[in-house]
Write a structure and sequence with these properties.
Elements: H1 7-21, H2 35-46, H3 52-55, H4 61-68, H5 71-76, E1 81-82, H6 88-93, H7 99-107, E2 114-118, E3 124-129, H8 132-135, E4 136-138, E5 146-147, E6 149-151, H9 160-164, H10 172-179, E7 185-186, H11 190-193, E8 199-200, H12 221-232, E9 239-241, E10 246-248, H13 259-268, H14 281-294, H15 315-318, H16 356-366, H17 373-385
Parallel strand pairs: 1-5
Antiparallel strand pairs: 2-3, 4-6, 7-8, 9-10
Length: 386
């Protein structure tokens, strides 16, 4: 009769079996097709652009993480864990219910969008953030918040405002504003003018043929990448826009040389395929007829936006709130290119439409569309299919 295996050997085998059972991906991973895209993927996922200068030296984020943030609290704040970088056995050994578990996840580089450096004693000495913090999520294959990485999917669970409100770099009044931001939103002007009109974090997939990627079409993707990297992530680099009165020059420039590769990778991320069971195909076919008759004047051609021709719209044209547009250089909104709508509610720049039915009802009112209840339902099914 065989003697039983010691517990020390059983646990790793059980964990290996568990990980094998959840190894299959629900959605295909974006695979770079050339060296530039591969370089861009590394930048998107892991490059901080030297922003540790702010998050460590000024914001003291590393102190807060080391002392106060346990794994369950991190997941509650919407942070995600990449299970493909997770050594589950080591994580469990370091107590998954303590700050030691958080440090282990960071040591394994498994926290999506957060990078930390450690000294020989295991203390966090530097911490920074990457593009993936807001523009990647996971498929929850192992547990909610823990799964295979999904680049380009907006992290609509991320409590950006609540995370920032933990930092001593902000005043009490600023923290109160930050805590009011809904999850999955961020205001990219707050640190300039102190006003607050948080935007839903946009998807970063399906951008290849879209000329201006932001809600107000202020520039192409590399413009916005530079703006965010330097002025929001606080990376060490250059950004200048006379329209905003912003001119930041820092040596060495750790941002500009990486923009081409970052753009190449972002353009390679296709929109995720729509699960066939998530919508009614017959209704969607009828909905396309409704869409073509009522929506296709602005949502044009394959990109489903007229902004590729430079068109912008006053907020009043579509019943949008004007508060954010008024803080931007264009004062108007672009027509949103519609892609993978089924997976990134809420909708509109400010997230006011909680569902696609709310989107259709809004435009029916704002544009005085004479749609029956059945046509509205069919239009929703078509939007789910995009």
């Amino acid at each position: 009769m065989r003697s039983p295996l010691p517990v020390g050997k059983i646990i790793p085998r059980v964990l290996t079996l568990v990980l094998a059972l959840v190894a299959c991906r629900q959605f295909p991973e974006t695979k770079p097709s050339n060296d530039l895209e591969r370089q861009g993927r590394e930048i998107f996922r892991y490059d901080t652009f030297g922003d540790e200068q702010f998050w460590t030296d000024t914001a003291r984020l590393h102190d807060i993480v080391a002392k106060d943030i346990e794994p369950l609290e991190a997941l509650g704040l919407g942070l995600k864990v990449d299970m493909d970088r997770l050594n589950l056995a080591k994580f469990l050994v370091h107590n998954p219910f303590s700050t030691g578990g958080t440090r282990e996840l960071l040591r394994e580089n498994a926290v999506v969008g957060v990078k930390a450096t450690f000294d020989k004693a295991g203390n966090i000495t530097r911490i920074g953030i990457t593009c993936a913090l807001c523009h990647s999520t996971v498929d929850n294959a192992l547990l909610p918040g823990i799964g295979h990485r999904l680049d380009g999917w907006p992290n609509r669970d991320l409590e950006v405002g609540k995370i920032l409100a933990l930092l001593p770099a902000f005043t009490d009044a600023q923290r109160a504003v930050l805590r009011s931001w809904p999850k999955g939103t961020y205001d990219p002007r707050f640190n300039f003018d102190g006003r607050s009109t948080p935007l839903t974090l946009p998807p970063a997939h399906g951008l290849a043929r879209v000329k201006n990627e932001t809600y107000t079409a202020e520039g192409p993707i590399s413009y916005w990448n530079a703006y965010v990297a330097v002025t929001q992530m606080h990376g060490h680099g250059d950004f200048s826009d006379p329209r905003l009165g912003v001119s930041i020059v820092q040596e060495p420039d750790m941002v500009t040389p990486k923009l081409a590769a970052l753009r190449a990778y972002q353009h390679s991320i296709a929109r995720p395929p729509t699960p066939g069971a998530s919508y009614n195909r017959a209704a969607a076919a009828r909905g396309k007829v409704v869409f073509d008759a009522n929506c296709a004047r602005c949502h044009v051609e394959a990109t489903l936006t007229d902004n590729n021709d430079g068109t912008l719209h006053a907020p009043s044209e579509t019943g949008m709130d004007s508060a954010y547009a008024a803080r931007t250089t264009q004062k108007r909104y672009r027509t949103t290119p519609l892609r993978a709508l089924w997976q990134h509610a809420p909708y509109f720049h400010d997230g006011r439409a909680r569902s696609l039915a709310d989107v259709v009802d809004h435009y029916a009112r704002a544009r005085r569309l004479q749609l029956t209840r059945g046509e509205r339902r069919d239009l929703v099914e078509y939007l789910k299919s995009l």
